[in-house]
Amino acid sequence: MADRDDMPADAHARLEQAQSVYKRFYDKHHRDVRFAVGDWVWLRLRHRAPASARRRQPRPRFYGPYRIAEVINEVAYRPELPPRARLHDVFHVGLLNRFVGSPPSAPPALPSVHHGATRPVPNKSPVLDWPEAFAKCLFTGRVNLPHQPHGRTSTASSSATPPSSLRTSCSSRGGEM
């Protein structure tokens, strides 16, 4: 009967012990961030990921910088977003990063949004044709062939050396001349 009376006190002591351990780990990695009206911050739009999952370049993590227009409370801030921005204008402090440097004269535009996600920026890197890729393989030993969807061939590949012989000629030499 005495064990039953001691159980709530024991459970309470163990909960306090667990809370102190969790508090120690939280305080070890916590950074106290506060902004004032007029500070410039970077804005993280993590909930606005680009629609295309097949991006070859990393997407920007932060947009801006934007000036803090109002401090709602310790953890909520209202930045001066561009006109016609289709976002909620109050952000948690975890989505803001302090801007260091000379502030811009006007805040930049936000990325375009389509169905709730930012539109991907088209890749502007040059794509080699099959003959150029073959020549690059012969001279450098490395080749970056353009991606062709299954069932399609480019006009350059049908008139030039077939892709299978490109692979065998490059791989048979081990990438060296």
Automatic annotation (TrEMBL):
<dbReference type="InterPro" id="IPR056924">
    <property type="entry name" value="SH3_Tf2-1"/>
</dbReference>
<dbReference type="Pfam" id="PF24626">
    <property type="entry name" value="SH3_Tf2-1"/>
</dbReference>
<protein>
    <recommendedName>
        <fullName>Tf2-1-like SH3-like domain-containing protein</fullName>
    </recommendedName>
</protein>
<feature type="domain" description="Tf2-1-like SH3-like">
    <location>
        <begin position="38"/>
        <end position="99"/>
    </location>
</feature>
<feature type="region of interest" description="Disordered">
    <location>
        <begin position="146"/>
        <end position="177"/>
    </location>
</feature>
<feature type="compositionally biased region" description="Low complexity">
    <location>
        <begin position="152"/>
        <end position="169"/>
    </location>
</feature>
